[in-house]
Amino acid sequence: MAPPARYASIDVGTNSVKLLVAEADSNEARPVLDRSAITRLGEGMQASPLGLKRGGPARNLREPAMRRTLEALAEFVDLARAEDASAVAAVGTAALREAANQDTFLRRAQQRCGLDLEVLSGEEEARLTYLAVRRDPLWQAAARLIVIDIGGGSTEIIQGQPYSDAIAACLSLPLGAVGLTETWLRADPPTIAELAAADAAAARAFDSVALAPSPGRPRWQVVGVGGTLVNLAAVDLNGPDSLTSLHGHILTADTIAAQVSRFASCTLAQRRQIPGLEPRRADIILGGALLLGQALATLGSPSVAVSRRGLRWGVLYARFLA
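^ thats the sequence. predicted structure below, dont judge the formating
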């Protein structure tokens, strides 16, 4: 009997690059390798108080950020090949969507890694992120599912059709953890005025969220993906021994508010010492937590479940297990 096929997907985000290698058998996928590297591709790209604003003044990806990201891409392609992945699908998100020199990066990725990297629209990113959660065994049977994805350069909110891969409503907001931090949270620790301005900016970003009508029961299951969610869960568990315990962990709105207060009262150096918080994410975790709090307030949800399976899983399902 032939071994299951192996495929790889790579997510090139504003803040990090993520690799998934999985064995695919019928409609199931089992992870073989799951890696992440923080490269900050979108570093310094903020074009407006709402971050990477569609239709706003174009900004270029910076050379050091491109080099860091290309290094990670080359390493991840080598890892995928070492794990016998028969094909690699790579996608880019907010930073690449908005970069005036997008073509330069795509050309260099092709020349160095042999990758034809696809830059996703915000709507396609949302669809694939929803697919990643909907096909997860934890939430496959959920009647009503809403997915929140807080990235570095954008935030997606996706409402699915009941018991379906189909989407009822989705919104991609041009504001993420990196954008909120670089624009509003500049002091160390942030001032009260900065915190108020950042929270107000996050609230304004969610003003346009409009979900499809949903009369009746059961209630919506809200699930969050991305580094912000995973790190908030890890902090809530005081630095868990295993990453597997983070998948499905429940964060309440009260817990998130308490974490916002904790992060806001710390210097960057102090935040880097918090158990469970990845040190290289310490500078943007406050921005991410503020966005998550406003997302839950907008949805009227008292809590969010954490998923470690984000966009890269949706890419895997859509490209290789459709």
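DSSP finds eleven helices and eleven strands in the chain.
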